[in-house]
Amino acid sequence: MKTLVLTAHPDLSKSRINRKWFETFAETDGITLLDLTRLGGPTLNFNVAEQQDFLLAHDRIVFQFPLYWYSAPPVLKAWMDQVLTYGFAYGPSGTKLAGKELLLATSTGGPEDSYHAGGYNNFSMDELLKPFQQTALLTGMTYLRPFVFHGAAVASDEDIIASKATVLAHVLDPELNPAIKKARLDKMLEEDAKLAARVST
User: Fold this and answer.
1) Of 27, 30, 18, 89, which Cα lies nearest the Cα of 55?
2) Residue-wise pLDDT tens digits, 124-143
3) Which domains does the chain possess?
4) CA dihedral of residues 61, 113, 163, 76 (deg, nearest 10)
5) 101, β-bridge pairs
6) I need a labelling partner for 114 at 20 to 30 A (CA). Which of 45, 47, 82, 177 fits?
7) Any idea what DSSP says for residue 176?
8) In the chain, how many H helices and how many E strands?
9) Taking the mean position of all CA atoms in its chain, how far away is CA 90?
């Protein structure tokens, strides 16, 4: 599985959490890592053909970003607007991303219990991230369970350091794809059935 991480943070040098994740991904073999803020520059303009080639060369696409006003920072929106084009990502002939996986790795300032009905933020993270899920569905990608780090505003240094291993394990877990997990479980059941049949004879 070839993994592409697209980091969308306005200023990684000022980040406590996303910078640590970025550094962890950079040190990991098998991950291609792009800093969209650096690539897009002040005008947030991207080399579309180059970015599309990156997408085509990888199986799992990861959007890494801090949650900004219940959405992504402007740099990720600009990248999506420019790169996920008609005829490439969607439309009658836009099937280039079909079969790939989309995974989000995001951080929030508020605590986890504020993201639910009746909480300060009223909605769950699954609800707030629906636009990304719909983007995956429209482009034929498999939307995977997001990784969310809550409470960044009050997180201890120890919590942040611990999140490095957790986010990396999540991003590299092949069984986030339910089809892959089901295939493994089906194989185990088949092997158990064969073993039971041999024992009964």
Assistant:
1) 89
2) 999 999 999 999 999 999 99
3) 3-174 (3.40.50.360)
4) 30
5) 60, 142
6) 177
7) G
8) 8, 6
9) 19
- Tell which phi-psi region holds residue 171, choosing left (phi > 0), alpha (psi between -120 and 50) or beta: alpha
184 vs 35: which has the higher pLDDT: 35
Is-above-0.85 flag for pTM? Answer: yes
Q: Per the structure block, which two tokens stand in for 181?
A: 């997990």
The encoded tokens of residue 135 equal: 């983007």
90: which 2 tokens?
């969607």
Helix, strand and coil in the chain, % to nearest 5 = 45, 15, 35
82 token code pair: 């420019």
28, two tokens = 């990991």
Calpha distance 28→37 (Å, rounded): 21
The residue assigned the tokens 């790939």 is: 100
- In the structure encoding, which two tokens stand for residue 17, read together? 């959490």
